[in-house]
Amino acid sequence: MQLATFARLVLVLAVLLTGSLLPAAPVSAAETLALVGGTIIDTDDWGHSAADIEDAVVIIRTGEITQVGSRDTVSLPSSARILDTSGRFIVPGLVDGFAAINNQNYANAYLYSGVTSLITVSGGRRGRLFTEGDPGPHLNILDAVGFEPGSLEEHLQATEVLADQGTDVLLLMYKLTPEQLPVVTRRAKELGMGTIGELGFSSYADGIAAGVDAFVHTTRYSLGLAPPEMARDVAEQPFSDDLDSPKWRYYKWLARLSPFDERLADYAELLASGSVSLIPTFGLLYLDLPSAENPWDKPIARILDPQDINNPADPETGRHDTNPAHQVAYSALARSEYILEEAYHRAGARYLAGSGTDVWGTMPGISLHHELEALVRIGHSPREALAAATSNFGATFANWGKVGQVRSGYRADLLVLDRDPRHAVENLESIHTIILAGQVLDRQALLTGVGRNRD
User: Fold this and answer.
1) Is 297 helix (H, G, I), strand (E, B) or coil?
2) Residue 216's domain is classified under what CATH number?
3) Rounded to a whole number, what is the largest CA-CA distance in the chain?
4) Residue 451 lies in a domain
5) What is the pLDDT, as a whole number, of residue 224?
6) CA pair distance 367, 357, nearest whole angstrom
7) How wide is the angle at C-alpha 297 spanned by C-alphas 291 and 299, nearest 5°?
8) Last residue of a domain, which of 363, 379, 396?
């Protein structure tokens, strides 16, 4: 009898005897693991491909996917530990492209929510970077140049230092000039770093011409719509929360912009014209929408401490406790973000998912799912939204490596879902099994948390 046929008979017998092939204990990265019977959801080509594989087999060894195909084309190794995924759906682990991680409970919350990789943001309101997660998502470190004015030599030196320190993604900020931006961008890529722009003195047209990989925050990369003098004032003072500050004068102007304004259509075409990806971070204003649900109602929220989160929602109401004038302004801005992004998406802009955690009440793991729902709201299909949190990162960042797809040679970060994510993006929360670098995690154990538990 052929080995593959024998292995299939063993599989059938095991199902009959046990009713389940999910392991009683976590699978170590050293074991050969076989996922058998599920449907692999294709996320290639920015979510436009649909080469799904039904009744699939995924073989994992030493943390890497080694074989993928239909059951008829992949032989099961005799030593493999088998997970029966029949009737379920296999997708890559999710990526949060702009998020903080401050402690083990954050790590648990990300993993419980299916987030297996982060582009990490730290410092200021987001607190210190926590790198000791056990378990924890893979971390891609982000740091910035151009927060303050400087010479080209100073910015290049800062870029070199950050590369030496292990920075994976360079955030190009407000004070980089149009002359400095392309030089710094090019040097960052030579050093193996991806680039994200949050620009001011340089325009976003400058950023596209310079080859910046991605832009972050709708409210920031929409600065190209504003009159030049307004944009310059924001670049000089980008972070004030005073409603009379240049930033808020711009935000109020943005909230009044008509969806039929010719400037919006022209600017949308610009953003879609290059290879740049957009990271809207809708989550930063999620709580200011009337349709927002209370994020503290999610099961994983019980291990999170409101004191760890910048400007958290009230756990009872799910809303911010803010003065009426600020609330009106924030709600108007939140609504305008959808108008802007609908135009950008309609023009053909490319997208990455990033939650903005943990500023303005955003929460680890939970807010990325809000982000995916927002992407569908502006016109993405559920598959395209899934791609924005998986394979689009590899398509955007040349240094990203083989992650974000269910494909041979890629890192074995996978989710097994009970419900079909092609039908509704909310089904990405129906997580049955989490596999991190080839290891099956105990999802229920993640709910235990470390330290403070609100229950």
Assistant:
1) helix
2) 3.20.20.140
3) 79
4) no
5) 96
6) 7
7) 135
8) 396
